[in-house]
Amino acid sequence: MAQTDEVMTLIRALNDRVVDSLEQLSTLTDADLDAPCGHPCATAGTVRSLLTHNIDHERMHVGQVYNIRYEAKMMQNGQVARLLAEWLRDRAVLISALYGLSDEDLDRTHADGEYSIREAVEHVLYWEKDSVDGLLAERAAAAGVAAAAADATPIAEAVR
pTM of the full predicted structure? Predict the structure, then answer.
């Protein structure tokens, strides 16, 4: 089942909000974690407790969404939905692996002749765009051929 506009709007909003939050919080240091925080969600009154709360809060609501899906017999049984969800999860894992690296770290390699961290990410970005663009072009061309064939059918019948 294709995603509806409302579902995609929520997905974009969640993505945009977390990217914005992560960018704003990326300047925190480890020492900042024990600094006071007066937000009511900072249950222990520190920056660390606020961030921990936000992580746990997210997990609770993920569980809530899955419980609702389960009770309504709407688990992600569709193969496309499952594949896209797995891809997004793995992208989040890749992004999370970048946190805490310095700019210099991006050029480190595991062994001579292997990709650096930067090159690995650029490789992922390049081939994702190339493969998705290629797939979409193939599908558009196939749809165009099918549409042209459908349009030509009445002409062919009229000529007979």
Answer: 0.77
